[in-house]
């Protein structure tokens, strides 16, 4: 099942088209893409038996962030050993947690304005919470995940490191710095939900390529570690970290410029395309 936000309305993507959930369910579920996670079990049961034969063509440019207004955004730093190494840090013993502010979220295509600074890319798998999770055991962590989507943790390194200690959340929360999409894909769609390829290309050149099996803290481990401190709420998202290949870690360091196109992919979900424009 692939859940998306089409021009602000909740849809299911199927057979190359989109099915409007409010209309297909006879009003049982509303049009708000965010609200569906509060009724995730009920919605998943309905969708499993729904007639999706009424899929209509749509424009990819009309897709928005599939989770447009999460109450909590968790982002994990240094969650791949190779990225920790290229960043000059030791492999963490505990998850490095920060947030991206909701106003940074945007959809899977379009223009992103570049502020002054050194703006970098970070492809990430994003986990979407489907059930309230509090003090969850790692063995049950996947049970609380509605699905997975693609994210970019775009980061201005100047703002991030402008003062000690680093201000991760500020440097990663400019408008458009949190692209997500094109859809939330349920776990049953993946041959192995613990080993998924992800990567990104800049102007046609591969910058990052990794596998989620190389994460230091897996998705269920993150659900357990985060929920040990506070409840994870339906519709929350977890940016799970990035593999090696970020611009700051290259020699010489490379950052995004006006006119660049960034293509971000996660196998089994799809891709995002963004062009960077002047502020």
Automatic annotation (TrEMBL):
Gene3D superfamilies in the record: Fumarylacetoacetase-like, C-terminal domain
InterPro entries: Fumarylacetoacetase-like_C, Fumarylacetoacetase_C_sf
Start and end residues of each Fumarylacetoacetase-like C-terminal domain: 73-276
Keywords in alphabetical order: Metal-binding
Keyword match Zinc: no
Keyword Metal-binding attributed: yes
GO molecular function: catalytic activity; metal ion binding
Domain of life: Bacteria
Entry protein name: 2-keto-4-pentenoate hydratase/2-oxohepta-3-ene-1,7-dioic acid hydratase in catechol pathway
Species for this entry: Thermocatellispora tengchongensis
